Amino acid sequence: MNTVTPPRARAQRLMRNLDWPLLGATCALVAFGLVMVYSTTRSGPHPLMFIRSQLLHLVLGVLIGIVILAVDYRSFAAGARALYVINLLLLAAVLVLGHTSLGAQRWISLGPLGQFQPSEFAKLAIVITLAKHLADRPGPYRSITDLAPFLGHIALPMFLIFRQPDLGTALVYGAIVAGMLYAGGARRRDLAGLAAGAALLSPVFWHVLKEYQRRRLLVFLDPSLDPLGSGYGIIQSKIAVGSGMLWGKGLFAGTQNVLQFVPEHHTDFIFSVIGEEVGFVGAVVLLALFFIWLARGLAIAAQARDRFGGLAAVGIVSMVAFHVFVNVGMTVGIMPITGIPLPFISYGGSALMTMLWATAFLLNIGMRRQKILF
Amino acid sequence: MDREIFERRLIVLLTVVAGLLGILALRLWQIQIVQGDYFLRLSEENRLRVTSITAPRGLVVDARGRPIVVNRPAFTVALLRMELRRPAQEIPVVARLLGMDPAEVEQKLAQAQGRPFEPVRLRRDVPKAVIAAIEESRMDLPGVLVEVEPVREYPYHDLAAHLLGYLGEVSDRDLRVLHLPGTESGELIGKDGIERTYDRYLRGRNGEIQAEVDALGRPFRTLGTVPAVAGDTVVLGLNLDVQRAAEAGLGDRLGAVVAMDPRTGAVVAFVSHPAFDPNLFSAGIKAGAWNGLLKDPRQPLIDRALQGGYPTGSVFKIVTASAALELGLVNPQSRFYCPGFYNLGGHVFHDHEAHGNLNFLDAIAESCNVVFWTVSRPVGPVHLAEFARMYGLGQVTGMDLPQESPGVMPDPAWKERTYHQPWYAGDTLNTAVGQGYVLGTPLQVARMLAAIANGGTLVTPHAVTEIRSPDGRVRARIEPPSTGRLRLSAQTLAVLQTGLAAVVSRGTAASIQMPGLAVAGKTGTAESSHGKPFAWFAGYAPADDPRLVVVAMVENAGFGAEFAAPIVQRVLQVAFEIPPAGAPHP
User: Fold this and answer.
1) How far is CA B320 from CA A280, B68, B327, B438, B493, in A?
2) Nearest to B325, CA basis, from B569, B551, B493, B559
3) Is B256 a domain residue?
4) Do B55 and B89 sit in the same domain of this protein?
5) Is B3 a member of any domain?
6) Do the domain assignments include residue A374?
7) Is residue B466 a part of any domain in this protein?
8) Do B128 and B176 fall into the same domain?
9) Fewer C-beta neighbours within 10 Å, C or N terminus of chain A?
10) B35-40: which pairs have CB atoms within 8 A and are 24 or more residues apart?
């Protein structure tokens, strides 16, 4: 159906269609993240250890990202079934041979290559396979039962992640599904029904939660319940962010940061150090970068050439938006502590690479938005 | 798909995303701009401090449970540098109060450079009057902390000092080189003796207090406490009474005394004189005191029982006799004639007296050099060294103390290697009577005697017999396996035992006979190139059912029978007689 296009010309057009604002926002976010990871980890006995690992994952993430960009995104749709199975196997593997850290099994050891966290990559795998599934069953969805296959689609991976236990990531899946079903054309009343159902089921989940997860949720409601433990984290994080005021205390000058008052301050709580060191101005710049990124993601969804690409783009945007809101919300005391990282910023190789690949996938959809015609 | 609905819904999603980010921005506005001053004040004033609680080290008790090493509470003054307002003025004030040089304080702070938020201990065991003075100037010294910390105490001062060891501060370098989990810089760890060997049991686990402190650094609210866990109690084989007898027996002379249970290898007394007072190290030793110990010509830091290599003199005849008997060259009744000298190719070796006609058993009892020179020729240096190594000479005993010396057991190959010289027949004669190149430690000699006493097992000496938790439960029994058996026939062993008993019943050590306790042993008088000979006596008792081996060695004293044997006698008296029940030790 298409005429033969010289490869160079095709590549040129693909480059012309590359979403430069999205790419620029991504670069800015990654750079921001590297500076903050350095700021939060440089006072330890090995000041360069963390930043080196983060850079290594960045390079690896970019290289694989370029490969993802080069392959037409529709090939991923073709391989969706295999991707789904591999993803399940990896998640099951974590439960069997996973490495326990902070009371949860989330990592698989790769020997000298370090560890990786399949639940991070799983987010992207779920987006792609669910988009394919939604594209294959385009609706119209006339009832909740019409949505059941898609709920079934995410039930097993979500259950495996919940078992690790990783409440935060399981909730990310919820956000991904909600965004994609909504954009995919589900009726509002059906989605509201599902939300009500989830709310009704929450007492059941409460019992499944680990003691520390329950405590975190309770403490969110009343931080003074546990000022030393999880409540302590919330209070200290708020103090850190608040004390940054308009301009911040300056890079590398945060006292809450160096004092290590804020727990996990290079991973989940990195935003509290951002708030402290670069202040309201810096924090808002960061939020603006995320807004550009998310808005461009939705624009790519709008221009996508097919339903698979459009829905995959929505899934990626839902995922990142949820991460940003829950993570930043947690550090400023308006969301409970669930332990999900700040995209592109938090220390953590698997998460960084997943976000880079998600970006590559978005760019890929955007780049191939037009039918190849002259 | 319905493209129009899709695009409409994307606009809704965009609005939701913008709304969520807007909520975050509003919240940031609220806490950073509206409440920013409040949180800034909190972050400055409402500091949280984590102070570690030093775990009390485990006690060290003797075989009967009497404490030998304990702890007492004392004040430690530490400095939190980040809380100093004007270090240039405050540091000299603190230094003066503590009687330290400001440069010394600066140096300690510099060592902890990378960790400005950890208190740096300046001085331990600070007198109460100084603490009172610090408390008075509290308002001017915000970063100065006073903590109560246990200080190690050795109530018997230099008693068994080399066995007990001492403490020292962990340096940043130690932390990098050694694997010491849960140890922070400036903490005291065992540096020598059992304090070092059993450090992981003794140290316990430090606790911590998390407290909020006010702008003056005073804790006003404790957020949480992780209690310290005291270290385990280390039970020694040492018997305090026997140890004291051994120390008193040696007196102020240079030397060593080792007493050991020949059945288990448990060390019952362990003296090296001169010793040092481990209390000097408990609060971190001062440079002057340390240099004094290092430069003392009497070398108090050397453990003479464990690290001192000495010619063993005639005690070595046990080895020579074993070889001659086992190789079938002599039997107890073999007849010899001792004219008082031995002629080796024109070179005359003099004995201390002319013993005349005697048999081999008499030769052991009388310690006749001529007989042993005579039999050493057919035995030869290689066999001598082989039998000596069988007794564990020339090797470390594996006792649970650091830096043991293996001594020297020469043979022709060793001499060639070490001096690039051939072995001469005279070397064989010297070796046969524990002279020349032979060097042994008192501990090795004790193990050798124990092997004969217990019927041929080479036990592994050990200071510690048991580890108990602070509440008295037995955590571990220390029973190191033996390192081998003597390859000697029952007859040879019996002849040696008879010979050693004869040394006391009618031979060179007859002077130490005691009513009711048959002692066996061997005297030694080892020529020294500088000064009087080294006096040795190595014995065990009761001769027919040995329960205690005692070895005494006195540097540059004279005859073993005259200077060393009485020490052993005194130790045995206390071990077997003075305690009314007559029980030896555990």
Assistant:
1) 89, 40, 11, 13, 13
2) B493
3) yes
4) yes
5) no
6) no
7) yes
8) yes
9) N
10) B35/A242, B36/A242, B36/A243, B36/A244, B36/A245, B36/A246, B36/A280, B37/A245, B38/A242, B39/A238, B39/A239, B39/A241, B39/A242, B39/A243, B40/A242, B40/A243, B40/A245
Residues of chain A contacting residue B10, judged by C-beta atoms under 8 Å apart: 183, 298, 301-302, 314
Q: Which of B24, B117, B210 sits opposite A325 (nearest CB)?
A: B24
Alpha-carbon gap: B201 to the closest alpha carbon of chain A (Å): 27
Three-state secondary structure of A173-192: HHHHHHHHHHHHCCCHHHHH
Contact B13 A317 (CB under 8 A): yes
Domain shared by B63 and B205, yes or no: yes
Strand (E) or helix (H) holding B53: strand B47-53
SS3 B443: helix
Report the CATH number at residue B84.
Answer: 3.90.1310.10
Question: From first to last of its 586 residues, what are the pLDDT tens digits of chain B?
Answer: 478 889 999 999 999 999 999 999 999 999 999 988 888 877 776 566 677 788 899 999 999 999 999 999 889 898 877 677 777 888 888 888 888 888 888 888 877 665 555 678 888 888 888 888 888 887 777 778 888 888 999 999 999 999 999 998 887 666 666 666 566 667 888 989 999 999 989 998 888 777 776 555 566 677 677 888 999 999 999 999 999 999 999 999 999 999 999 999 999 999 999 999 999 998 888 888 889 999 999 999 999 999 989 999 999 999 999 999 999 999 999 999 999 999 998 899 999 889 999 999 999 999 999 999 999 999 999 999 999 999 999 999 999 999 999 999 999 999 999 999 999 999 999 999 999 999 999 999 999 999 999 999 999 999 999 999 998 899 999 999 998 899 999 999 999 999 999 999 999 999 999 888 999 999 999 998 888 999 999 999 899 999 999 999 999 999 999 999 999 999 999 999 754 334 444 4
Which ipTM score applies to this complex?
Answer: 0.91
For A227, the enclosing helix (H) or strand (E) is: none
- Please tell me whether residues B521 and B562 are part of one structural domain: yes
Q: What six digits make up the tokens of B235?
A: 């039970």
Contact B561, B582 (CB under 8 A): no
**Nearest CA to A168 among A123, A131, A116?**
A123
Is residue B15 included in any domain, yes or no? no
Q: Is residue A211 part of a domain?
A: yes
Q: Are B148 and B262 part of one and the same domain?
A: no
CATH label of the domain that carries residue B346: 3.40.710.10
Count of structural domains within chain B: 2
Token pair for B45: 């004033």
Q: Which two tokens stand for residue B15?
A: 């609005």
- In angstroms, the separation between the Cα of residue B40 and the nearest Cα of chain A is 4
Q: Are residues B159 and B244 in the same domain?
A: no
- Cβ-Cβ contacts under 8 Å, A332 against chain B: 24, 27-28, 31
Q: Which domain range does residue A41 map to?
A: 32-367
Residue of B nearest to A288 (CA): B21
Structural domain boundaries, residue B511: 240-576
Which of B205, B220, B236 is where one domain is finished?
A: B236
* Count of domains for chain A: 1
Q: Which residues contact A313 (CB under 8 A, 6 or more apart)?
A: A297, A298, A300, A301, A304, A362, A365, A366
The answer as to whether A1 is a domain residue is: no
Of B210, B236, B262, which closes a domain?
B236
How many Cβ pairs closer than 8 A exist between chain A and B?
A: 135
Buried b (16+ CB within 10 A) or exposed e, B263-272: bbbbbbbbbb
Give residue ranges of B with CB < 8 Å to any A CB. Answer: 1-2, 5-7, 9-10, 12-14, 16-18, 20-21, 23-25, 27-29, 31-33, 35-40, 42-44, 46-48, 114, 117, 210, 223-224
Q: Do A334 and B5 touch (CB under 8 A)?
A: no
CA atoms within 13 Å, Cβ hemisphere of B135: 11
